[in-house]
Amino acid sequence: MLTLGIDASTQSCSAIVIDTEAGKVVAEASINFGERLPEYKAPQGFIPNGADGEVHADPRMWLDALDLLLAALKDHCDLSKIAAISGAGQQHGSVYLNDSWFETVGSLSPSLPLSTQLESCLSRSSSPIWMDSSTGAECQEIAAAVGGNEVVCAKSGSVAIERFTGPQIRRFYQQNPDAYAATARIHLVSSFICSVLCGADAPIDTGDGAGMNLLNIQSWSWDDELLAATAPGLGDKLPGVQPGQSTVGQIAPFFVEKFGFAAGTPITIFTGDNPSSLVGMGASKPGKLVISLGTSDTFFAAMPGVVADPNGCGHVFGNPAGGSMSLQCFVNGSLAREEVKDRFGYDWDRFTAAFAKTPPANDGKLMVPFFRPEISPRVDLKAPILQGTEAFENWHEADAAMRACVEGQVINIKRCTEWMQLKPEVIYLTGGASQNDAIAQVIADVFQAKVQRLTVSGSVGLGAAMRAANNSLDCALSDLEAAFCQPEPGSTLTPCAAANTYDELIKNFSACLG
Ligand code: XUL
């Protein structure tokens, strides 16, 4: 049985086909927007040099990429054999459509490109995406209208955030009320692509929907107060909300005729890239958590209950496998590690060797490694805080500084994610720095949990293909995880330091931040 997962991400649109019985990936394809669609002048997937923090992309580019992607995939795989489809999109991005959308999406002709047929449905020619930070004023207005950010957070799982869709919609309404009035439907990237594949207006799932500051995380339905605080008549412009295990349609005739899909192939609701990755990493049940070590470090996990971060730094989304999940971003990730390494002229080998020369908890030397303002917690520090010996505080102890940077990062992640009430049995590491054993060992020691690296690459698309198999073909997620989400051989690390090793350092770290 083959299933298809689509990943509509920031820089590319990718597809992965898995064989659920053989436990193998059988085909993959990817269209990089900048390389393959240079006419959109978006080398990294967004229109550069937006004013006032605006970051937009052209939704026609996403449609052209979908056409190109399926044409490329068809060369590797007989698409008539695909038994179920799902997908994921970059979170928070929004597409604005007029009332011709409902009919047009249901009558696509295979003789014309998707973008040509759907461009007249756009009531806004470009889509703000998650990198957009232009909505500071709108965030304040929304929070003030409902009684403060504590209320926004308790209701929606996050304080009002610039990149989230509600503040983006409010800005559009305020700047261009006529175009807002002409908008009959607002989709997320995920529900837009899902609609096109179904040939019908599709709902938004609780995973991606929670990234809008509009969805109530207790009822998992649109929150009337947040809707009213955002823009007039918004409730009528949004599609319905459904959980991740919902079948929302069948592949549209356009794709059957053009690419040879089997008529009737079921489509499972799309979700956001992070919720999809939770599934693709094999972490959709509480007890496993994922730390992605990238430019920013990102932490996410299935949550046993639905609680919002009382400090307003983290986010709660629906878990596409049921229940809820948390996500928290830490701005000072790999760039902070690099700054410390470069400061002493170390390469990555010397960086790693420093950990063998220094003990866990670093003889009490600690660093709050924020080189730029941090969002978890919200601290406007422009340079790190160092505490320890005089030599250490004056940046004269290179090896101790390497360890202090990573220990500071991991301690910060641990203390900032305590609100999630997780009991980690295993931590899955992903992202560039995850291969570094010294960093992985610090994570095992501070969290006192087993750490594993997974062989999974492209966990977003894989998660989508697994969700399609689970929802439409009754494959158990546990079986799919056993087949597709295995640790790399020899990659498992267990804590070496005693359980109380970091107690003092954690206390001192918290004291530094006041
Ligand atoms: C999550 C976020 C990004 C996007 C793009 O809140 O903004 O991770 O989903 O990947």
Explain what you see.
By secondary structure, the chain is an alpha+beta fold. The chain has two domains: 2-269, 2-Layer Sandwich (Nucleotidyltransferase, domain 5); 279-449 and 495-514, ATPase, nucleotide binding domain (Nucleotidyltransferase, domain 5, 2-Layer Sandwich), CATH 3.30.420.40. 37% of the residues lie in helices and 20% in strands. It has a six-stranded mixed β-sheet, sandwiched between helices. Strand 21 and strand 22 (378-379) form a beta hairpin. Helix 5 packs across helix 6 (149-156). The radius of gyration is 23 Å and the shape is globular. The structure holds D-xylulose. The site of D-xylulose has 10 residues, from helix 14.
* Number of separate strands: 25
How much helix is in the residues?
A: 25-40%
Shape: globular
CATH topology of the largest domain: Nucleotidyltransferase, domain 5
Number of helices: 22
Q: Low-confidence segments, ≥5 residues, pLDDT <50?
A: none
Span of the ends, CA to CA: 56 Å
The bound ligands are: D-xylulose
Summarize model confidence as the mean pLDDT.
96
CATH first level of the largest domain: which class?
Answer: Alpha Beta
Task: Report the portion of residues in β strands.
Answer: 15-25%
Rg measurement, Å: 23 Å
- CATH A-level architecture of the largest domain: 2-Layer Sandwich
What is the domain tally? 2
Q: Label the structural class.
A: alpha+beta
The description of the largest β-sheet is: 6 strands, mixed
CATH superfamily of the largest domain: ATPase, nucleotide binding domain
